[in-house]
Every structure is written in structure tokens, then in C-alpha cells.
Amino acid sequence: MNTRLSTRLSNWFGYASPATFYPLAGKMIPWFWALAAVFGILGLYISFFVAPTDAQQGEGYRIIFIHVPASWMSMFIYLVMAFWAALGLGFNTRLSGMMATSLAPTGALMAFLSLWTGALWGKPMWGTWWVWDARLTSELILFFLYIGFIALQSAIDDPRRADKAGAVLALVGVVNIPIIYFSVKWWNTLHQGASVSLTRSPSMAQTMLLGMLLMALAFWMYAIAVSLTRVRAIILERERHAGWVEELSEVQS
Amino acid sequence: MNWGSASEFFAMGGHAFYVWGSFGACALLMLVEPILAKKRRSQALIELKREIRANQDSQDETTS
């Protein structure tokens, strides 16, 4: 029993070794691109051709099909990044820090898209690009947290120390995620409340919801594919003195 | 189907600037980011090969 558990554990930790994970990630990337493309095409089709015109907002509401997925992913990626950072801090596993580093630019991209599409949606509907309300401000702070994480890590030469410093920043910043999520409940904001909630039925047409969920899946698969691509580059950069790297076929050729 | 013609589709009921500004920025960034990530990996590979070659050269010099 004990030996079985320990082999299972060591197998599990085996994937945490960059030497095992590098080729595994390489095999998974094309599949995540394929899934992102399938979900994206279906999602865009529903967004533009199936979902009906909104009674109040006309066609302008179609921004929702990228605004909401980008906002969800900006928060979700932060949680995943903080999870890897914490794991690296706690267990000193090399790969965890690389995963956190790899996720930050994609998270920043999602946060930027959330703010950008929000501004382009706010202008025609609220008459303003920006207001300093709780939802918008906390999302802006999230964007700055990503930028701060990237800047802090790139300012420290030793990658292990950069991982640790970044991890502390990422973990402190986690407090911002529930603030973003509940901001529309806690404060009186110009931003509308949640359109999708776990506790009550969604306040939108079924086709709109379906389009949004498909786009969210597409964004999710995109985020996995691009961050795995980046983590492979980071592994090569950091492990360049390890024997297994020199034996890779792409290095030999 | 929501649109009578292609021009109606691109007009987005008068919200063309906002809708296409959003989807366009999204498409552009999601095209650029993977290219940069792939470039970073090929750059790392180039540097790796250069380093290995330099090591081999210095080894050859010491043995000869």
C-alpha cells in the first residue's frame, strides 16, 4: 500500500519535472489550438448570426461575446497563476514558477481586452469610455497586478529568486479577485450586475448564453495553448545547462 | 439570420466602430501573442545551439 502510494506520488511529481513536461506540452499544444478553433468558430457564428438583436442595446450588445469571456479569463488565469506560484513557494518545484511566469502575459492580455471592450461598450451605452466605479477600477488594478508581476520578475536576474518575489506579489494580489467579482453587489456601480449566476437562472436569452459560453471555452483553450507554448520557451531558457535539453532532437538538428 | 445584406452586417446597426473595434483588437492580440511565444522558443533554440557549438569548439581546442 505504502509503496503503491509512493510510486503514484512519484509518478505525479514526475510530470512536474521540466524534462518530462516539455515533450508532453509539445504534444498537447496542437490539440488545444484545435479546440480553441472549433469553439471559436461555433461561438462567433452564434454571436453574429444566431443570437438575436437586443431590444434595448441593438447590435452594440454583441461586444458581450468577447467582453465577458475576456473578463472571466482575466480573473481565472490570475487564480491559476497564484496557485502555481504558491505551489512553487511551498514545494520549491521548478516547473511551478515557470508556469506562473508563462501565464502572466496571457492574463494581462485578457485583462486588457476586458478593459478595452468595456470602454468600447460603455461609450455608446453609458455615454462614457470610463468611470471610476468599483468594477472597472478593480479590473484595472488586476491589469496592473499582471504588469507588476511581469516587471518585478524581469527585474530580478536569478530566476529562482524572481519566482519567489513574483509569488509573493501574486498571492497578495489574490485578494483583488473576490473584490472584482462581488463589486457589483457590494457597491452601487454603473456596471450592470452579473448576467450569469450559479444561484439563479441567467437573465438572458438561451442563445446569447450559449454563444458566450462557447466563446469562453475558446478563450480558455487559447490561453492553455499559448501559455504552454510560452512555458516551453521558458523551460529551454532556464534549463539550458541540463543534459536532457542538449539531447532534444530540435537542439541536435 | 439577423442580416439582410453584407453591408448591414458590417454596419452593426450603427455600432460598427464599437463592435469591430472590440472584435478587431481581440483578433489582433490573439494573433500576435502566439507568434511572439513561438518566436521566443525558436530564439531560445538558436541560443542553445550556439552555446553547444561554442562548448564543442573549446573542447576540440583543448584535446588537439
Question: Could you explain the architecture of this structure?
Answer:
The complex is a heterodimer of chains A (253) and B (64). Chain A is mainly α and 253 residues long. Chain A has one domain. Helices cover 78% and strands 0% of the residues of chain A. The longest helix of chain A is centred in the N-terminal third of the chain and has 33 residues, at 18-50. Chain B has 64 residues and is mainly α. In chain B, 84% of the residues lie in helices and 0% in strands. Chain B is built from 2 helices and no strands. At the A-B interface, α3, α4 and α8 of A face α2 of B.
Chain-wise SSE layout:
The complex is a heterodimer of chains A (253) and B (64).
Chain A: H1 2-15, H2 18-50, H3 64-91, H4 94-126, H5 134-155, H6 159-173, H7 176-186, H8 206-238, H9 243-246, H10 249-252
Helix pairs in contact in A: 2-8, 3-4, 3-5, 3-6, 3-8, 4-5, 4-6, 4-8, 5-6, 5-7
Chain B: H1 6-11, H2 16-63
List keywords for this structure.
A: mainly alpha; 10 helices; B: 64 residues; 2 helices
Summarize the structure.
The complex is a heterodimer of chains A (253) and B (64). Chain A has 253 residues and is mainly α. Helices cover 78% and strands 0% of the residues of chain A.
Helix/strand class of chain A: mainly alpha
Estimated radius of gyration of chain B = 25 Å
Secondary structure class of chain B reads mainly alpha
Helix content of chain B: over 70%
Tell me the fraction of residues in β-strands of chain B, as a range: under 5%
Number of helices of chain B: 2
The global form of chain A is globular
Which H/E pattern describes the elements of chain A?
Answer: HHHHHHHHHH
Radius of gyration of chain A: 21 Å
Give helix and strand order of chain B, one letter per element, not per position: HH
Q: Work out the oligomeric state of the chains in this entry.
A: heterodimer
Summed up, the domain count of chain A is 1
